[in-house]
Amino acid sequence: MIFNTATAEKTAELLLQINAIKLNPSNPFLWASGWHSPIYCDNRLTLSFPAIRNFIRDEFAKNIEEKYGKPDVIAGVATGAIGIGILVAEEMGLPFVYVRPEPKKHGRKNQVEGFLQKGQNVVVVEDLISTGNSSLLAVEALREAGANVKGMAAIFSYGFEIAKANFENANVNLNTLSDYEHLLPLAVAKQYINENELSTLQDWRMHPDTWNVAVK
């Protein structure tokens, strides 16, 4: 679910402008999962554009407090959301921690890095939601550390049904600055794609695990 329509449209436009989101239906990308995709999203690029990262920071800070109330701690999911998570925590005047994909193999063997007390209210910041599996592993680690996870805020979501089901099953409230549904009409209006390419992108969205334009 998006925080609001105006933010969703503006965020999508900014991500397209800096090629953080690339749309290429005729020459699809190959994801690490093995899926072929006409879209590739790298929101870490936003950190290289001060005006855009500040917009994302401000929208996160405002909407997190409106949606979840002011938490005790902001948590970023490593590695993609560490940078923006720190900016959000700084803007909100809050402590920051980040969550590794798995515990370290040495030293203190931490998975949650930073100072976190049991019972503290935490909002998790993420850069991108696909299936939600890796994001929810971070939530699980925070809960195991005794945190009260109020919800998650992400820059962008593909809006897959599997992700919706995963977040519901984990009882995690997810809100995003933008999503696939708000991206596509904007991409057509701004002439990043044409109507035929729009149809391809819509088809992929319905069956991303089996879609492959190269064999059609």
UniProtKB/TrEMBL annotation:
Pathway: Pyrimidine metabolism; UMP biosynthesis via de novo pathway; UMP from orotate: step 1/2
Role: Catalyzes the transfer of a ribosyl phosphate group from 5-phosphoribose 1-diphosphate to orotate, leading to the formation of orotidine monophosphate (OMP).
Protein's name according to its UniProt entry: Orotate phosphoribosyltransferase
Enzyme Commission number(s) of this protein: 2.4.2.10
Superkingdom of the source species: Bacteria
Keyword Glycosyltransferase: yes
Keyword Metal-binding (UniProt): no
One Pfam family named in its UniProt record: Pribosyltran
Gene that encodes it: pyrE
One MF term in the entry's GO annotations: orotate phosphoribosyltransferase activity
Xref: InterPro entries: OPRT, Or_phspho_trans_dom, PRTase-like, PRTase_dom
Gene Ontology BP terms: 'de novo' UMP biosynthetic process; pyrimidine nucleobase biosynthetic process
Binding positions (orotate): S130
Binding site for 5-phospho-alpha-D-ribose 1-diphosphate: R100, K104, H106, E126, D127, L128, I129, S130, T131, G132, N133, S134
Domain spans labelled Phosphoribosyltransferase: 59-155
